[in-house]
Design a protein that fits this description.
The chain is an alpha+beta fold and 60 residues long. The protein is built from two helices and two strands; from the N terminus they run E-H-E-H. It has a two-stranded parallel sheet with strand order 1-2. Pfam families: SNF2-rel_dom (PF00176).
Length: 60
């Protein structure tokens, strides 16, 4: 199980922090993403978090 606090930092798919975090989340059987501010300025910033939980949610 992975519990990721401040998950809104996983917003840029090219950032090393996001790559490492998403790899860790995908390798876990369960995950919980915690954030007081999940989308700071644009809805697209939620994509990396949702994709880490369920890559099939957005098909393209």
């Amino acid at each position: 199980m992975v519990i990721a606090d401040e998950s809104h930092f996983l917003k840029s798919p090219k950032a090393n922090r996001t790559k490492a975090g998403v790899d860790l989340i995908k390798s876990a059987r369960r995950c919980i993403l915690l954030s007081g501010t999940p989308a700071l300025s644009r809805p697209i910033e939620l994509y990396s978090q949702i994709n880490a939980i369920d890559p099939k949610f957005f098909s393209n």
